[in-house]
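note to self — DONT lose this again. spent like an hour looking for the file last time. sequence + predicted structure for the chain T wanted, 140 res
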Amino acid sequence: MYNVHNLIMFKIDNNFLRKIVKIALSQGGVTADMVCRKILTNADMWLFPKYPDKTIICRHDSNLIKEINNFINANRKLLSQQHCFLGMWLHPKTRDYYLDITTSVKEQEQAIKTARKISRESERKIVSVYNLLTKKTVFL
């Protein structure tokens, strides 16, 4: 359950960070609930950045544990919100990693509509939504 206590108290677990990096390196991306310390897998939900202007790009040769740790510390309050997760994915051409604050929506059409709205209101544009269960990407 998300509450003020979780917002203030969730701690960064280095073992969990290593797990996040290991999955991202082997699978090209990962979505993690930092409050519950869970990797999201096989859930029928559409994912996209909730706060695209907070997204950062990490060079492929950077210290990913350190980068994630810094990103979490800078965005702890946002990552503590309900339906907000740490998203990390590999850009297939540059091989750089993107870290963002991801949110989820159950229905594809609602995800597209919401992502487009957020994209219009942000400097950084949202390129796509992604379904965690079907592994399907829909470009906006």
